[in-house]
Amino acid sequence: MKTILSAILMVVFSIGIQAQSRLENAKKQAAENNELILLNFSGSDWCIPCIKLHKNIIETEDFKKLETENVIVYINADFPRNKKNQLSPDLKKENASLADQYNPKGLFPYTLLLSPEGKILKSWEGLPSENVLAFSKEIRDIKDHQKQ
After folding, report:
1. Which ranges of 48-131 would DSSP assign to H, the alpha helix?
2. Ranges for the Thioredoxin domain (predicted)?
3. Model confidence band, residue 20 (pLDDT cutoffs 50, 70, 90)
4. Cα of 117 vs its chain's centroid, Å
5. How many domains does the chain have?
6. Mean pLDDT computed over 56-64
7. What is the span of the domain harbouring residue 65?
8. What integer pLDDT is reported at residue 146 of this predicted model?
9. Can you give the CATH number for the domain in which 119 is found?
10. What is the pTM (predicted TM-score) of this model?
């Protein structure tokens, strides 16, 4: 009986570690490079505002500069519905864990700017009203304010 209980606890513990690996890696990278974390919850194949957010902001060169210039570490927690777009079981668990922690209301799209410690600095419910340049500038301004 102890062996079974130990095995169950090990599995639960290992799932908990796996479930936070992207966030933990992002926290580590953000701390090392003085970056912030941008966490986006999306439904990539069913949520029209999510699709617009990715097309008009996240997939643009101006947004990608935030990553290449060490302003942010980007994490997308996607919840696709179509069978052909399904994620691996591990990634599904990780996204569910991120949603439990940061998006308990299940909003889509929902974007959070986090400190390297995981503290929420800013959130956007739905499609941001700003264009990509204003959105990027707001993130840069928050990062610059964090340095002070």
Report:
1. 48-53, 61-68, 89-102
2. 17-141
3. low
4. 14
5. 1
6. 97
7. 2-147
8. 86
9. 3.40.30.10
10. 0.86
